[in-house]
Amino acid sequence: MVTRMYPASAPTGGLVTPSSWSAGWNKTAGAGTKELLLWTEALYTNVNLGGITASGTSGHFTAQQRFISQPLLPQTIAGTVKGQFLCNEVAAGDNFTLAFAIKVIQADGSDRGVLIGTTASDDTATTPPEIVVTTPTNRRLLNSAESASITLSSLAVSAGDRLVFEFGVRQASTATSAPAIFACADSALGDLAENDTATTAANAWIEFSQDIAFGVTFYREAATPAGLNAVATGTADPTAVTPPTGMRAGDLVCMIGHQRATGATLAVSQASGQTWNSLTAIGGTTITARVFWCVFNGTWGSDPSVDFSAAVCNSVQMLTFRPPTNHFWAINVAQVELDIAAAPHTITGQTTLRDNPTLTLAGWFTADDNQWGNIAGGAWQVCGDSWYINQSGSDQSSSYAYLSKIGAGATGNVTKDQTALGDDPSVTFIVTFEAVPKPPPPAVVLQSVARAASF
C-alpha cells in the first residue's frame, strides 16, 4: 500500500514545533507551520499557502510552509515520494520552480533524520517545470535530476516521531516576488492529477510508496453552543450536537456535557445508534460535567444529545480521535477529578500502561465565561477550540487538551491559564484511552477423520 497525505490550510490543534528547518533553505523567515493530514475535508478551497517573498538571489531556496504529521509508530521509512501542487509566478522573470524537503523530528521537535534534503528542478528554460505566470497550474514535485519519483534515504523512526514536509520555491533570478501555491482539501473536488497542465482547483497531495503507520490522531470537534462567539447561549434540555463530517467507523467519540449547576444529573438521551460508555460525573459549586464515549460504528442516526434534567446553562462538546489502522478502543487509565481553587490550573498527568498507542484527554470547567490559553506541558496540545463559552444565566466555560503517546510512561502535567475574566475555581478531569490492536482472525484448522470401511 501507499500513503497519500494532504497539506491543511490551518492547524486543527496544537502542533509540535520543529527546532529548525532543513538545511538548504536560504530563507525561512515568515514561513508558516501547519498540519499534514491523512484525509481530505471541506475545510477550504483554493487557499494560497505561499506568499513569502523570494530572497532575490539566483539559485536560492525560499521556504513557504511546513507541515507536521501526527505521531508515528516505530518503523523504517524508505522507498520513494511524489506529489502535486497548483502554483503560479507573479511575473515572467521570477523563474521559480517548486522546491521541497522531508525529514522526521522527535517528540520534542529536535531532528531524527533526513528523508530527502531540500531539492527542486533547476530547469527554468522551459515551462514546465518552471512555474507558470498568473494562472495557478499543476506542478509535480521534481528533484534536480527532473525525476518525479524521488528516492528517500532510509530512516528508522521511533514511537512519537513526526514527519515534516517543507515546501517553497527555487529561483533562477534576482526577483523578490511572492509565489502563489494553492491547495484544496475539499474531498468533493478530488485530488490533483499527475500532470503539469491541470488548472482546476483540487486537492494538493504528497504520496509515499510505502504504508506509513501512525499513532492516535485528533480528528475534529463540534459544539453546542459554538462557544467562541461572545453571545453564544444554550439552555436546551436535552442539548444535541451535530457530529463532524467525514468520520470513520472505529473513531473514538468523546461527548462532554457541562451544566452550570451543583450535583446535576447528566445522561445520554439520544444515542444516535451508538453504544455509549459513561464516566463518573465531576463537579463543584455550580459546576457539573460528565464525559460519555463510544466507538463510532460508521453511521449516525439523529444528532446525539445529553439530557440535563433542567433547561438552564447547558453545553455539549464532541471531540473525535482516529486510531491506527486495525485498532479498537479501551480505557487505559481511569478518569481522575481535580478541583483547583486558583491559578495555576495544572492537571496532574497520568502514567500510561502497556506499549499501545494512547490518547490522554484533559478538561477544565468553570462557572464563568472565562477564556483559556497559554497551554504548557511538553507534548500536550490544544484540543478543538481554545475555549467554549455559554453565556446563558451566569455563564460557564470549558477547555480541553490532549496528548497522543506511544509506549508506557508518564504524560507529564498540563496547564492552561484563564486569559480573560479570571481567576475562577475550575473543576478538571484527565483520562487515558488506549488503541488496542485487533487480534488476527482465528486460523482455519483442517482435520482429517479416519473412518472404518465395512462391506
Characterise the protein shown here.
The chain folds into two domains: 3-208, Jelly Rolls (Sandwich); 217-437, no CATH class. Strands 1, 2, 3, 4, 6, 7, 8, 9, 10, 12, 13 and 14 form a twelve-stranded mixed beta sheet that branches. Strands 15, 17, 19, 20, 21 and 23 form a six-stranded antiparallel beta sheet that branches. A hairpin with a 5-residue loop joins strand 7 (96-105) and strand 8. The protein is an all-beta fold. It is elongated, with a radius of gyration of 25 Å. It contains no helices and 34 strands.
Distance separating the two termini: 57 Å
Choose one word for the global shape: elongated
Oligomeric description of these chains: single chain
Portion of residues within helices: under 10%
Task: List segments where confidence is low: pLDDT < 50 over at least 5 consecutive residues.
Answer: none
Question: What percent of residues are in strands?
Answer: 35-45%
Overall average residue pLDDT: 91
Main sheet properties: 12 strands, mixed
Please, how many helices? 0
Q: What is the radius of gyration computed over CA atoms, rounded to a whole number of angstroms?
A: 25 Å
Number of strands: 34
**What count of structural domains?**
2
* Global structural class: mainly beta
Could you outline the blueprint of secondary structure elements for this entry?
Layout: E1 3-7, E2 32-37, E3 47-48, E4 61-68, E5 75-77, E6 80-88, E7 96-105, E8 111-120, E9 137-140, E10 150-151, E11 155-157, E12 162-171, E13 180-183, E14 205-208, E15 217-224, E16 239-240, E17 252-259, E18 267-270, E19 277-278, E20 282-284, E21 287-295, E22 305-307, E23 314-322, E24 327-340, E25 345-347, E26 351-352, E27 357-366, E28 371-376, E29 381-382, E30 388-390, E31 396-406, E32 409-410, E33 414-420, E34 426-437
Parallel strand pairs: 2-4
Antiparallel strand pairs: 1-2, 1-14, 3-13, 4-12, 5-11, 6-9, 6-10, 6-13, 6-14, 7-8, 7-12, 15-23, 16-22, 17-21, 17-23, 18-22, 19-21, 20-21, 24-34, 25-33, 26-32, 27-31, 27-34, 28-33, 29-31, 30-31
